[in-house]
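Supplementary material to the annual report.
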Amino acid sequence: MLLTLLAIAAVAVVRLRDLFAVVMLAGIYSLITAAIFVVLDAADVAFTEAAVGAGIATVLMLATLALTGRWEAKPRHRPLLPLIVVTITGAALIWGTTDMPHFADPAAPIHQHVAPRYIEEGPKEVGVPNMVTAILASYRGYDTLGEVIVIFTAGVGVLSLLGLRRRRSSAADASPSTPPTTSEEPPR
Amino acid sequence: MSARPVLEAIAKLLVPYILLFGLYVQFHGDYGPGGGFQAGVIFAAGLILYALAFGLDKAMVVAPPALLRPLSALGVLLYGGVGLVAMLNGGSFLGYDHLAADPIAGQHLGVLLVEFGVGITVAAVMILIFFAFVGRSE
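Predicted assembly:
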């Protein structure tokens, strides 16, 4: 049921030329994905998907639309060749999944590697009831540190590319360290 | 009288609860679903809703970029700092067992601090990126 809604939203996103509607549908797509995560008992991921995918990303896309315009340009190329390439690639990918273990198979390698140790020893070694937190923050501490650095770097990158607009009133005394907003036109 | 009374009234009602829920997800992440990343984005979403309803200028007074920029680095420093303190106490980098006398207490403290660092950085960066995008469009 949810997957059907997901497919409808995805097809609509591809078909529509009105980018405002596309952004809204992309937000709905994320919200349905979050609902699927809840159904799969992955509440931690659902939180993130709902807040980032349906919330913040949608708002950022709308802000971008305000800069770029609402209507998608008509494609200038014929869709036939890309369609053939995509169909072949998709068929190859689906064919590739045929040797993968069955979905939610407890004997799959991914469930036999380190997961049993985390589940059995985690409560004793870390003592944090939420296993997701125990794995992310303790066992996988290096990975999470890397992720935080990635987010920080993304923020630095966006700020150095776009800059922050000074407040209209009393900007000089309130935030003297604000970098000079690029008043010249951005390079196109 | 504002031009969008319904939007502003709803935002006024919702924003405090969203921020409170963000803090709950942050500090209850050890016990229930959630953690630093989720808390950070929920907190940022609350402030973004405030900015959408009341405008960028007011939001920049509530969350001044001059404060958010150091905060976004502070979270990473807190995370790395916990790792270094664990090293100074004789463990390995990010080995929380050595943060306190008891390994379990050390793990609790380490996870809490590290998640707090993640939350600070994520919230600050998300709000800053939003400010940067919307500041461009206005």
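DSSP finds five helices and no strands in chain B.
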